[in-house]
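Tutorial, part two.
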Amino acid sequence: MKKIMLGNEAVARGLFEAGVHFVSSYPGTPSTEITEAVAKYEEIYAEWAPNEKVALEAALGASIGGGRSFCAMKHVGLNVAADPLFITSYTGVNGGFVIGVADDPGMHSSQNEQDSRHYAIAAKLPMVEPSDSGECLEFTKLAYDLSEKFDTPFILRLNTRVSHSQSVIETSERADIPVKPYEKDISKHVMMPAMARGRHVVVEKRLSELAEYAENCPFNKVIENKGAKVGIITAGPSFCYALEAFGDSASYLKLGLVNPLPKKLISDFAAKYERVIVIEELDPVIETHVKAMGIECDGKNILPICGEFSQELISELLLNKKNDSYAVSDNIPVRPPVLCPGCPHRGVFYLFKKLGLYVSGDIGCYTLGAAAPLAGMDTTLCMGASISALHGFAKVRGEADKCVAVIGDSTFMHSGITGLIDITYNKGISTVVIVDNSITGMTGHQQNPCTGFTLKGEPVTGIMLENIAKAAGVDEAHIRVVDPGDLAATEKVLREELSAACPSVIICRRPCALLKYVKRQPAVKVDESKCVGCKACMKIGCPCISMVTDENGKSKAKIDATLCTGCGLCTQMCKVGAIG
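Running the prediction step on this input gives:
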C-alpha cells in the first residue's frame, strides 16, 4: 500500500516492518517523531530514556539479548552517547541494531552544526543516508539484515529536511523475526584490554569487507544521462537539490552508504565526465575521499561549508541561475521564537534580569529567556552544563550570591544531577533554579521521568526533584518549591537562597501553559483610563502585549485577547492597577 509519510514516520514504519523488538531514545529535534511514531505500534516496546547514553546502552543490551533494537537522537545527542557508540563497533551485535541520528544543517533547532559522518568514520561503523521518505523505510529495513550479516550496528543518518518532509512510501507486512538465543561470549562482550585487542582486529577486517560491499550495494546508485558532461557525486537531500537544479544535463552517483565510501565505483564514475562536482551539506567528507583518490573535483571551493543547501543555492552557485519565482514584494517582518503566552518561565527570567544575576543557562524552551527584553541568560553550552559551569564560575569569582544556574526538569534528569553532586561534594555554595513545567517542552511535549507517565502513556511513579536534590546532598531547608507565577514570592526565595552560604535548589513549579489539562483563564484587559503608558508590562516580553497610540496621541498598553492565557504576570507588573 502506498502512503505519504514524514521521513521520521517512514523510519518508524521501517522499524515495524523489520521486526524490531526494542526502541529506546531521548527526544531531540529533528529526530523526535521517530520514537513517537514507533510507540503507536503495539508490537514494539518503546521508551523514553533519561538521556542518549542510557538509550544507546539499553538498545545495545537488547541487541546482545537477541532482539532487534533501535535508538534515535539528534546530532548533539550523539555526543552524549559517544562512549557506548564506540564500544558497539567492538562488541558487534546479536539481534540487529540501528542507531538513528538526525543532523540539523542550518541549525533550525540546535546549538551547533556538526556533521555526524565524522562519528561513523571515527567509530568505524557503517552509515547509511536516505534522501526521502521512501528510502527512510527501505534503508532502515535493509540495515537490520546487514547489521546481522556483518555483526555490527548501522548508523542511519537523517537531517531536518529528510526527517520533516513528506514523500511516498510503500508499506508491507511486519517480518516475523524471533528473538535470537543468547550465548555467553566473554571475548566478544567484555571489553577489557585483553579482549578488546582481539576485537579491534575484527573491526578492521569488517570495515574492509564493508568497503568491498560498498562497491556494489543497493544503497549506492548511478543515474546516467546520455550526453552529460558533468558527473555529480552526492548523498541525502543534496541529491534531490542537484537533480532539480541540473535535471538530465548531468549524471549522478548517489551514495546511500556514506561510510565506508567506495573507491572503484567513484573512480569509474568520475572517469566518464569532463567535470566532477561533489555536492554535500556541511563538511567535505565525500569530497576529501574523492580528492584523496587523485580525482579532481569541485565542491567546497564553490559551495558553502556552513548552512543548509537548497535547489536555489545549487542553481545560483553552480549554474549561475537565479530563481525569482519565490520573490515576495512586501517586507516580511522577522518573527524570532519567543516564550509562549502564559509560559511559566517568563517571570523567572524577568527576576534574573531585575536582580542583575549572572545566569548559567541550559538547553530547552527556557533558553528563549535569553532573548530581549528579558535577556535573562549569560551562557548556554550543552545539555546539563548550566550547573557544572556555574560551579566553576562561582569558584573562580567567589560571587555565588550573584549567580544562578537555570535548568529544566527534563534536562536536569538528563544530565544535571551529576553537576549538582559536583557542587555539594566540592563544597560549592551555588544556587540552582529548576524550572519545572511538568513536561519536555521544546521538542513537543514528551514525557520524562518526572511527569508520571511513560512514552506509551502508562502511569508510573514520577520522580520528585526535591528528593533527587536531597539525595545529591542539598540540605532540605534549602530545597525550596515556588510558583513562578507569583513574582513577589519567587523573588523573596531567590534573594534568601542567594544569600545562603550553602548549596541551594529552587524548584519553580508550574505546568506548561500549552498542556491540554491546563485550564486557560479569561484574558486580562487594559483599563485605558488608568494606563499611564509607563511600559512596565512590556518588560516581561509577553507577545500578547503591545503599545498603541490612542486618539489623544498618548501611548497605551494593549493586550491581544486571542493570545492571552490570563496568567496574571502583567497585572503584577502594573503598579497603577490598569491591567486586570
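The longest helix spans residues 193-214. In part three we will examine how such features are distributed along the chain.
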